[in-house]
Amino acid sequence: MPKNSEDTSTSEYPSLGKIMSRIGSPAELEELRKGLQAERDPAKPRITLCGGSACLATGSKEVAAGMEAELEAQGLSAQVDLRKTGCRGFCERGPVVVTHPDESCYLQVEPGDAPEIVAQSVNGHTAIDRLLYTDPGTEERIQRESDIPFYKHQVRRVFGSNGSIDPKSIEDYLALGGYSALEKALFRMTSDEVVEEVKKSKLRGRGGGGFPTGRKWEESRNAPGEAKYVIVNADEGDPGAYMDRSLLEGNPHLILEGLAIGAYAVGAREGYIYVRQEYPLAVENVILAIKKAEEYGFLGTDILGSGFDFTVTVHQGAGAFVCGESSALMTALEGRVGEPRPKYIHTAVKGVWDQPSVLNNVETWANVPLIINEGAEWFGEFGTEGSKGTKIFSLVGKITNTGLVEVPMGMTLEDIIFKIGGGIPGGKKFKAVQTGGPSGGCIPEALLGLEVGFDELTEAGSMMGSGGMIVMDEDTCMVDVARYFLAFLADESCGKCAPCREGTGQMLKILTDITEGRGREGHLELLEELSEVAREASLCALGKSAPNPFLSTLRYFRDEYEVHILEKRCPARSCKELIAYHIDPALCRGCMQCMKQCPADAIDGGRNRIHVVDQEACTKCGTCFEVCPARYDAVRKTSGEPIPPPVSEEQRIIVRKSKET
Amino acid sequence: MDNDSIDQIIDTHRAEPSALIQILLDIQAERRWLPREALERVSERLEVPMTRIMHIATFYKAFSLVPKGRHEIHICVGTACHVRGAERVLDSVEDLTGIQPGETDLDLKFSLETVNCLGCCALGPVMEIDGKPHGKMAPAKIADVLETYA
Amino acid sequence: MSATLLQIDGKQVEAQEGMTLLEAAQGAGIRIPTLCHHEGLEPYGGCRICMVEIEKRGWSKLVAACVYPVEGDVVVRTRSEKIDLIRKTILELLLAHAPDSPGLLSLAREYGADKDRFEAQASFCVHCGLCVRYCSEIKKANAVGFLDRGKRREIAFIPEIAAAECWSCMECFALCPTSALQAAYVWVNALVPSLPHVEAGSER
What we know:
The structure holds 3 protein chains of 3 kinds. By secondary structure, chain A is of the alpha/beta class. Chain A is globular, with a radius of gyration of 28 Å. By secondary structure, chain B is α+β, with helices and mostly antiparallel strands. Chain B folds into 2 domains: 3-59, no CATH class; 71-147, Glutaredoxin (3-Layer(aba) Sandwich), CATH 3.40.30. Helices cover 46% and strands 12% of the residues of chain B. Classes of the chains: A alpha/beta, B alpha+beta, C alpha+beta.
């Protein structure tokens, strides 16, 4: 387990540096909270800096260092709060800085911007124009975070507090009202009442299954068993989805609080958090949060003096997507290989060590304290009949505003992708949006008006899944998308049952053949047959849903499959074996850009000779296509067409008039 | 073979069989691979059959039964990176290093793996080396990046 | 244990609570094909050949008979167009690995499975798990286990244990429906004589 956990809270609030004695009653908690809130002057200048994984990758650590150095140099360390928070969602434009109380939002901040930002936060409140968001249509600069279209249309009930909390601090969480829901549940509600409230809210699992959470809790509550368990599924495996990572990294106490409330409701004394080992920062932050929660008495024995005991252990995954499946996860918790179990007996009744176990996704647990504090009706203010509340989506792929967005259930895909996401970059045309990860499907343009919800997405041939939303444009080949997901699932299959192990392997082989020009009549029928066998006979949901990406792309993009098979052509000009690059001799001006950058040395030419791609040596990497200067636009990408033969040597010589390049 | 550090790791987890995967993760983190002798020690102390340990050591991607290279290259092949061209990046890395995912080169310099989402989708395609993400990768840029690693 | 009444293939069957559908059917003389099932071992549910249709309260689903517990007032069908398609396809997928397996071939004749439908696969093993489970549950020797996952999953012997235990046992050989076990054992046998004899506790 990681040994170095940075503890930054003492530097910000030295008076709290001493270990608090455990809080022994609601009154003591209230006193502590009031004390913390009194220490925080809302008018005091504060600089919040996003430390989410994407912002870290674009240099937020260096920006933080720059800020600290500047504050030190100016002697302002006591006057200005610098808070490193978790992910704020606007990942395309990181590192993100928001200054308070003015709420100015600065994007793509660099360490060199530190002096200006620090100065602005103490002196006037004239925003720094060049770092503000610019509206692509009107060119207008927008200062306040909540006015930026990306944020304006979101409803950030669960994710919003990420921007105000230093995840390594419990005091930030407490000052915002943290652990008040736990206190309310333990002292003012019976465990039955907690279950009822969650049932009333109609909260459905946010991990993919969409099972009614309250019903699952009730089943475990009523099941016989000496020991019961509550488990957080933080094995977020859908590629392109990173909501759970950001929640766990950015606001770990929210999940711990939800988990403790669930334990109380169900009668569990022990909880587990199963986190992917690929998320070391999440592991680190949640272990630190548990330690602090124990110090303060929110976990452990006799919590807040209520007589309720509850401890939480962190268990790391070791790199297997199938362990995100609930019964496989529980098997992994027991120290075994993650092979799923037959689901005839619900894990809510017989789970870890055959004891009743409630497993829920990170985002599901995160909703619980909000429901307990604000009530089931408040929760249901947003959403559709069958899907209440809000959902966090990771909006990625061919999209302008890549990031994490939280929207009410019922918002249309069109609004999410265009109003919040800013549409498709590069002037390209929208083609499809893939939801639900490898178990989901692709939704075409015709269905952009779909209101996002569990049942709505399932009816369209996809599913909600954990919230991955991958946008695809005209350059994406839908047959390749199906092949990609089958490759993923074939690699991740546990291999126990024949329909999945053999079926995904055969489906992958056929789809690979199709994308490489070896498609045949009868292939689609065979794929459909294998799909049915996998769906009906597989042991677990991985196998049963493995055919979904193929079936949904076949449903909406059948013509693409047929063209690949019958014409050996890729309409999106994406499948490597079916495309070719050549240089149009009428447009080439001999600039040598493509020649110099071709990784395969496959271009012949010179300063005054038209360049020609050697088709035998070409690896189809596409570099020439990308680097040819826009004013020449001489490289052509084709599929299914014969390449025109190269022009003669004399014709290749470029005659330049003087002073013309 | 130094059994002491292996025993220490086992003791941290109180030699509980349910902590088997956690113990192996700690050994992998410390040694950069799972030596056979270490696995035999774990089998002995946890009283768990070697078949179970070997299955776990090969089932989960985090473990390696051979030593990893000095620098670990992870190419993200998550869906967002995929639609932005991650396959071409992977092809180029394979060409330049001479190894396939799951392999280590003979100099023990580079180990190559594919990963399914590093959570930096805004920077796709992403190539992560020794935990440091290199964003907006393209086949033409790979050689320069790899050259910076000794 | 109380008795449970259910219908299997039109026949009224009385079963004990705690039984599986497979046990109930066998008790009533109704045959359901299996591959990975063995009387003396825990039910595995891996081959999926025993899938049957169960109908209750108006809706129906497919379940693996070897692991599904009996329920009262249900209607079970052991054959249908869908079930037959599933069995046929699974057989074809497995025959690509083990085209000479007598057990698979005889089932193939019954379900019209074509052993050459899919391209021949390199490995004999059909993952019934009988060898692994037998060695673990009955012999408690754990000399053979699975490695890896998905298509790369395979059986393998632990050389040291195999060297000590298997010569005098070899009981799993009779259970293997294909040539896989023999192949794996022969491989280990070739390795074993070349392993140096190691005293317990010494450095290698």
